[in-house]
Amino acid sequence: EIFQTAIRQCAPPVHAWDSCAGSGGKSLLLYDIDPSVNITVSDIRKSILTNLGNRFAEAGIRKYRSYFMDISQPGMKFRDNKFDLVICDAPCTGSGTWSRTPEQLHYFDQTKIETYSSLQKKISSNIVPYLKENGFLVYITCSVFKKENEEVTQHIASETGLNLLDSKMLKGYEKKADTMFISLFRKQS
Question: What does DSSP assign to residue 113?
Answer without folding.
Answer: H
